[in-house]
Amino acid sequence: MERMFSFLDEPVGLCERNGASDIAIDGGSVSFEDVHFSYKDRPILQGISFTVPKGKRVAIVGPSGSGKTTISRLLFRFFDVLGGRVTVGGVDVRAVSQSSLRRLMGVVPQDTVLFNASLDYNIRYGKRGATELDRDEAAGRASLLPFVSNLEESWETVVGERGLKLSGGEKQRVAIARLFVKNPPVVILDEATSALDSRTEADIQDALTALSDTRTAVTIAHRLGTIAKCDAILVLKDGEVAERGTHDALIALKGEYAAMWEVQAKTNDFLVADETKEEAKEG
């Protein structure tokens, strides 16, 4: 029995500072300043530095284990950095309450979390007190309304446990609509479409673009074509930023990113805009 409850004596891994105040900004830039982080004795990030200016979109790519998802977890402060600091609007995330920090941000993950409840509930859950008008406007921006209009029970349709009654693309649209309802100034798209087929992914790209267009956005991507129009792209390798720049600049560099792009082009495992497809043909 003592061993069973021994975990209660373990120290709490993440605590708020005494007197931590709510973050007092409506948005702002996101910065990682010489950030170091390890999971126990396994180094993940080794001196990562970058800034996402307010209202800009930065994508992060790299092989599995390079630290992409860890960046989003540190931004939400699920863990604390071991060195350096993470800031939002110039404020160290360790200096503010976790609840206020997380109200400032929204995420569309690879595996959307849905409740065994109605579509209406799953979307309006994004903001306490959200109205039906909020829901309808958000669903329209997420291109969800045609789907809902064909349902016999409309907004009262129950989606099933973890959304099992919906397709992958439909679940992602619900997640996007939920974020439009919440209307956070900082958005994280964490491999948001990597589990979808290319056709479904193409269908929801406009909604994802609209979601991040006027917000500070960090996109963690697998398919490189989805981030070709971002303001900047960071390529992680072995816990460090190996390359950074725009899509065109990185292709011209003929380094890590260009090699990844070439591999995905050969396997058709990416999504590109029409003009980029034409460029690929000409190349």
Give an account of the 3D structure.
This protein is an alpha/beta fold and 283 residues long. Helix content is 33%, strand content 22%. The chain contains 10 helices and 10 strands. Helix 4 (132-141) crosses helix 6 (168-182), helix 6 (168-182) runs parallel beside helix 7 and helix 8 packs across helix 9 (256-267). It starts with 29 loop residues before the first strand and ends with a helix.
> Into which percentage range does the β-strand content fall?
15-25%
Number of β-strand runs: 10
Mean pLDDT: 84
The helix-strand sequence is EEEHEEHEHHHHEHEEEHHH
Q: Which properties best describe this structure?
A:
alpha/beta, 10 helices, 283 residues, 6-stranded mixed β-sheet, 4-stranded antiparallel β-sheet, 22% strand
Structure summary:
With 283 residues, this protein is α/β, with parallel strands linked by helices. The chain contains 10 helices and 10 strands.
Question: What's the SSE blueprint?
Answer:
Layout: E1 30-39, E2 42-52, E3 57-61, H1 68-75, E4 83-88, E5 91-92, H2 98-103, E6 105-109, H3 119-124, H4 132-141, H5 145-149, H6 168-182, E7 186-190, H7 198-213, E8 216-220, E9 232-237, E10 240-245, H8 247-253, H9 256-267, H10 274-282
Parallel strand pairs: 3-8, 3-9, 6-7, 7-8
Antiparallel strand pairs: 1-2, 1-4, 4-5, 9-10
Helix pairs in contact: 4-6, 6-7, 8-9
